[in-house]
Structures are given as C-alpha cells and as structure tokens.
Fold these 4 entries.
Entry 1:
Amino acid sequence: MRVLIFNIFLIGTCCYAFLSGGAPERIVASLFPAASAISVVWGRQISNAFVRPAYGLLAIDMALLIALIAVALRAKRDWTMTVAAMQLIMVSVHLARILNPDTIRPVYTVMLALWRWPMVLLLAVGTYQHHYRLKRNGRHRFWSG
C-alpha cells in the first residue's frame, strides 16, 4: 500500500513540476520517475536486500547521484543541493552494507526507501517556490553563472 501511495505522490509531484517548474525542476522531475522505473527491473533485489547488497540499485542510485549533483551545481536553487545530499546518503547506505555485511539488514532496506519521500517533497517545495517567485517577480533565472 505504501508503494502505491508513494507512486501517486511521485507522479503527482512530477506532473506539478513539469507544469509549474523551471528547467531544474523539470529535469529532476524526469530523473526521479526514470530511476524509479529502472529500479523495478532490479526489484527482486529489494526483497533480497536482507540477504545481500542490492548492486543494481546501487548503480541506479550512483547514476542518479551524478545527475543530481550536475543539476545542483548549475541550478540557481537551494533545494537541489539538499536533494543531492540526500541521494549521497542513499549511496552511502549501499556502500556501508557492502563494506560491513553485518549491517542490520532491515535498517539497510528501510534506509533505501526512507530518503525518497523527502526528496520528492523537496521537489514539490522547490517547484512551489519557483512558481511563487515567477508570480512575484515576473522572471527568475534557472541557472547560475
């Protein structure tokens, strides 16, 4: 049930970001569902996360981290750096599990799912802030530099 609720939350937030966000919001709104959809391919690994590290999910999370860092370094948005930091925590959880196989297995699984919620929420908040600045100022730069 929580997976269904999260997917509705993700799709709704990404649609909102596509309709009301700037370029950074739209990029992140395309990255999140893409990573989620690709993760379905390795979905078996989530159920096996109690047994061994989910290397396929680690690869997806690493690629997402690199893309989020690229957006965060260029975007004129504060929320993007926070989202990239949260993704770095997720990658660190994978690495901790690989380096220490005795890591409490349920904690590993929960940590993989936990950070996705606030990351999507930050996308919604960032989109709202962008939309509000546009209404107030009429224009807003997407990228720094």
Entry 2:
Amino acid sequence: MDDYPLLNLFWTMLWFFVWIMWLFLLFKVITDIFRDHELGGWGKAGWLAFCILLPYLGVLVYVIARGKSMGQRDVKQAKASEAAFQDYIRKTAGTAPGGGATDELARLAELKEKGAITDEEFEKAKAKVLA
C-alpha cells in the first residue's frame, strides 16, 4: 500500500463513481429512447446509433436536446403507475366506483335499520351479495 498514495486512491474511487453514474445515465437514455412514442423508428435508430457509436457525446447531446421531455415522460409514467396501483387497491378492497360487496352490505344494513326491509329480506339479500 506504500506505492499507492491515499490521494491516488481517492481519484480512482472518484473516477469509478463517475463512470458508474455515466452508465446509469446511458441506460436511462436508452430506455427513454424506446419509451418515447412520439419518436419514429428512424429517429429511435438514429439516437440509439449516436449513443452507441459516440457514447459520451451521444448521451450528452440527448440530455441537452430531449432532457425536458425525458422528465415529462418519467412523470407521466409515474402518474400512470400510481393510478393503476390505486385502481387495483380499490378493486381488491371492494370500494371501486359503482360499489362493491362492502358498499352493498352497508346499504342493506341501513335499509334494515330504517325498517324498509324485514330481517328475512335482509338475510336473503346478504346471502345473495356474499355468494
């Protein structure tokens, strides 16, 4: 360890970190190229070739030229994923718009309390909802 000073170790770790960050950015750009529905096939092929043949320059130019729309696509995808997740939770919990079994049972219990339906009618409707 005497022949490799601490400052050289620091610089090696810094350049390694920068290289890893650049790889993350490269993969992010490549996935964004394929995710963009507004970009045609030739445009995707051109950007991909540019990023593969001249990687540092290609990624830098892509981020400068299309960075804002890249962020907008990320936000749009995050919102769509969140909406799908919330819809899944609503369907699973039975609270989807239009009602579910829980809502129907609550409505039947309310009708029974008001006296609009008898105990026998409540039990039949309850069995029908739970079946």
Entry 3:
Amino acid sequence: MDSDQLAELEAVIVKFYSPHDEQCFFDWLGRMECVRRFYGCGDTLYIVIDRALLSRREMHDLLGFFYRYNISMTQLRVLETPEFSRFLRDRDAY
C-alpha cells in the first residue's frame, strides 16, 4: 500500500441521536471498502481512505455518510480525480 494513496479525513464532534445511531455510524464506516482504518483522538475521529479502493459507489457512500452525520464535506476535495470531479462539483448531486 502506497502512502500517497491514503487520505486522512476528520469527523469532528459527531452528534449521535441514540446509541443505535452511534452503532449504525460505526457499522457503516466499517463496511466501506475504501476505509482503511479509523481512530479517535479527543473529539475527532480520523478516517483513513485508500484512494485505490475508491469506486463511484464508495464515493456515493462517503458523500451520504458525511452528509448524514454532518461531517465537513469540503475535505472530500482531497479525493477528487477526473473520474469524480464533475460529480463532486455538482451541488445538486448531494
């Protein structure tokens, strides 16, 4: 695994509405193939993405995940490639 292929994203102070919601958050995060690992420090959860495993489906999942849990979506720009550029820049897409 090439470290240039990895991107570290941050989820700061994620709000959960119930214990089940928190479980769903981590279950969803754990099912995304592009998520290499995640770990917390203080009020921040770091999510390490493997760009080599990032498919269109995975990008849709990341967008939905970040939107659902109110995680800053601007940081997804680090994942922009020609394949995803048009999609990421379309505000009507998400």
Entry 4:
Amino acid sequence: MRASRVLAVTATAFAAVGLAVPMAAATNGPGNGPGNGPTNVTVNPSSVHQGATMQVSAMGCGQGGKVWSNAFPTTNLSAGSTGFATAHIRPNATPGQYNLSVRCSDNDRIATQRFTVLAGQGAQGGLGGSMGPSSVEMQIGGGLVAASAIGGAVFIVRRRQTGHAAV
C-alpha cells in the first residue's frame, strides 16, 4: 500500500513539472528567447542623476543591438547571450520617468524598460583613486619634500661640525 502511494505522488510531481516547463518557456519575454528579440531588459541603477551613467543589459541579442531613450543618446549593445551597454544620461535631462528601448541587430522586435532621472549631479563618490592630484597639490607636495630635504641636510651638516670640535 505504501509503495502505491509513493508511486502516485512521484507520478503527480513529474506530471506537474512536465506541464510547467512549456508554460515557463512560452513566457520568457517579448522575443520568446534568443534570436527572436530582446528579453529580460534590466537597468542598473533604476534611478540615476543627470549626467551620470547607467548600465543596461538585455538577453537574446546574440548579434548585439541598440539602446535608446530621450534621456541619453543611442548606445550600442554588445553581442552575446546577454548584451551590455553603458548609457550616459544627458546633464540637461529633465528629471522624471523615462522609457528606454532595446532592439537587436538581427530582428525588429523592441523591448522597453522604465527608469528615473533624478535632479542634480549627485555626489562624486566611489572614484577610488581614479582622480589624480591637482597642480596646486603637486606644488605643495614638492615644496614640502624640498623643505624636508634642506632641513635634513642642515641637520647633518651641523651635527658633523659639532662632532669634529669634540674630538
């Protein structure tokens, strides 16, 4: 009796999984899979300041494609199973909601995604050493190095003179 229950539960589970797979494959986006158009279009971050950059990714554009919006100039999408693009938001873009569109190079289907442009330039954080020192900072640093070199030389010369007199 137990074997028949286990068999019935197993058969039901396999039937449920078997019926769910075609439905999942049929609903994976406007292009219904690779080669048929862009799917799973994502933006990161979804809220971006004027003048900043935003990353766009789209699946299903094996030959690459184009990304465009009123907030940024048309940008190329890289080729591959997941294409990537970096969109530079215009500094004068009006704050608010925008849509971007993605079209693959190998077909005419278009997918869209929504994002928000925020007012202001935002903080210039996270540069992690990618900005070098200014010319004023370089001059101050050079002056400090020269002053310490002169001070060290004076110290050594004075110490040497007092050392000879004692001997």
